[in-house]
Structures are given as structure tokens and as C-alpha cells.
Amino acid sequence: MHELPEASRWMVERFGEHAHQVRVALAEAARASQEYALDAKAGSKLESNEAYGALWRILGHQVATHMNFLPGHEQVHPKDSRFPLIVFRGTLVFPVRYSSSPHGGDKIRIDVSEYRARVYALNGREPEAVQGHLDLGQEFDAGRVRVVRDGSFGSAERVVTVACAVSARGGLQHVYYGEAAPDALGFLDWTHREELPQSLLDSSITGLALSSDPGVGGRFDQAPLPESPISLRTDAEGNQDQSATGGGGE
Fold it and tell me: Which residue intervals make up region (Disordered) (predicted)?
């Protein structure tokens, strides 16, 4: 069990007393996304990584799920988004996946669609280069949280980017978070950046972030196993069944 270092002043300014749990939630979301994407790849029986390629969407849903413990948060589904987003105290949490770089967080490049340009315009730093494709969205239902369905960003006034370096072969390598916007080439230009400790990405830690509603946001594999009705049968029981049904050999 590892103890997480004290949250920075920057984190506390945005997430208050929940800053510690937010970092844990981001790590749990990243680990769960990698696990589910690998499961999808294994289930597809394909040698390619086509099924694993859905990780970026899985990541978006997992971040929203693991951060739904924040009191009074909004869950928004902006126009053209493929997954819901969390807004807390005016801060929009925006997850992206990128290919790992030897330059660490200094050379993170992402695709910049018209949708992402709208996201980063919240920081007053709209990207210079915008690609023409859109991320087409779909409805997402939640429990007892405020869900904004008008295609907007709700009460968001700023964006916190969560950038995850993860791949099928290399695993979960880095998770950076902070304030950034893509430049003309799609490289994130950070005005503030922090990184989750590697120990947090590799294992569990104290102070786990929990959903405010035990029935919301749980993982499908955390439910108790059902009791199996299957049991061993004696030869006498088998013979009785055959007599009752007329079964038996020829």
C-alpha cells in the first residue's frame, strides 16, 4: 500500500478537499481503461489492435465514472462528443490518449477536431489548426447527477487535460494532467502540468475515490458471484432420474 504525496496548491484550487481523491480516481480510470481495452483485444481474436483502439472512448467513460463521487458535479455531453464529461466548480475534465514519447510530457501530440477546438476555447486558447472530422455523439444516462444534454459544456469555464500514454504492448506508462491547449501542430502547450506517481498507476493506494451512490459507477466484475446450483451426483441419484424419465441406454 502506497501513500500519495500531498496535493499541490494548483490541484487544491480546482478540486478543493477532493484533490487527493481526484488523483486516485484518474489513476483508477486509466488502469481500468487499459484492462477493458486489452479484454476487447483478446475477445476479438484479431492479431491487429483494432479492438484495442477503442481505448480512447473507454477512457472517457471511465474518467466520468470514477469522478462521479464529486459532490454537486455536472455530467455534460457536448455536441459531437463520444463520451460524457465531468464539470466540477467550473473545471471541465478532458481525457485524451496519446502515443508515448521519449520527450515525456513536453511532446504530447493529439488530433485536433472541431469538437476539441471548442473544448480548448474554454481556456481562451483556441487551436490554430483544426481538422475537419467530428466526434459524433450519443446519449448517456446517469443516476442522481445533473446531466446537461443541450450540447454545451454546462458551467465549465476552464479545461483540465488528462493525457494518458498507454498502449497494448507498452501498458500504462504516464498520466499527465494540467492546463494546456494544442498548438498549430497539435502538440499540447502546457501552462501547468503535473504527473501521477508511477506507484499510483501500478497498484492500489489509500484514500480511494468512491461513488456517492453505491449503485452508480461500479465495475461489472465487482459484483458477488452467484451460488452455483451444480453439485456432484451419486450413481443412485442418476439411476433414479433415468427410471423416472424413461432414460437409459439402448
Answer: 215-250
CB 67 within 8 A of CB 75: no
Rounded to the nearest integer, the mean pLDDT of the chain is 77
Reported as a single tens digit per residue, the pLDDT across 186-197 is 999 999 999 999
Rounded to two decimals, the pTM is: 0.72
Say if residues 74 and 154 touch (Cβ distance below 8 Å): yes
Q: How many domains does the chain have?
A: 1
CA angle 196, 202, 203 (to 5 degrees): 105
